[in-house]
Each structure stands twice: as C-alpha cells, then as structure tokens.
Design brief:
By secondary structure, the chain is mostly beta strands. Helix content is 3%, strand content 40%. The strands form 3 sheets. A 4-stranded antiparallel beta sheet has the order 1-2-3-4, with no helix packed on it. Strands 5-6-7-8 form a 4-stranded antiparallel beta sheet, with no helix packed on it. It is globular. The mean pLDDT is 86.
Amino acid sequence: DTTPVALAASPDVNEHSPTLSADGQWLAYVSDKSGAWEVYVKPFLSGDGEWQVSDSGGTEPRWAHSGRELFYKQGGRLMVAEVTARQRSLIVGQRRSLFTIQEYYNFSFHPTYDVARDDRHFAMIRSRYFGESFDLVVIENWRPVFRN
C-alpha cells in the first residue's frame, strides 16, 4: 500500500526521530507535546496508547536489540530506560544514566550514534568545532585484520 499513514502526528506538536523496535511492534519518537523534548513509545500500527519514556528531557531514541531497553540522550548524558511489553501496553521501568557524551556530536533531530548487537557498546562521532575539517575513516572487512 502506498497510502501514507500518520503514525504519531498530533496537531500543533513537533515530532521527529522515529525508530522501530527490533520486533517491529513499537515506535519510539521524540515530541514536544509536554513543552519540552521527550521520548515517547506507542504501538506500531496496532492499537492505541502512548508512554513517555524520558523524564526531564530526551532526544535521539535507539532501541536495544534485545527490545528490553531504550537508549536516549538527555543533556550531556546517554540514558537507558528499561521497557517491558505486556500485551498491548508498555511498562517503563528504571531510568539511569550510562555515561557522559558531551565530547560527542549531537544533533537532536536524528540519531548520531548506534548500538552494537550486544547492547553494551556504542558507535559515536567525536565532536569537533563546526568549520574544523576532520577525516572519517571507514575500515571494511576489519575482522580478518585483527585475527591472531
């Protein structure tokens, strides 16, 4: 079907940074409906409901591959929230700070980091002053290079 469907569109509200859970059942995104940027989750294409995941601000949501955690940025910190899906609802558990990210690139409207498959390592871009040139190095087929 090529008909567009509004997934999180609310009138007079700004929303961005959508990301699907690994199982395709949940949509995380950022909205300013509370007056501040916060991370929300809602079912993807099935059912109603919406749960605020961040508190005191949140941007750039990324799902853990396990589906049991949602990472997001809050100020100069990378945060994680435990999430548990129960039937058609979501339980948001403990939120905690993982580490400081002030030295890494930040652009609130789309993720500037990724989560490794083990959900414990992250790929981030070290920040530089705007206008300063830098090199981006991509290593392909890196596993054979590091074999003993």
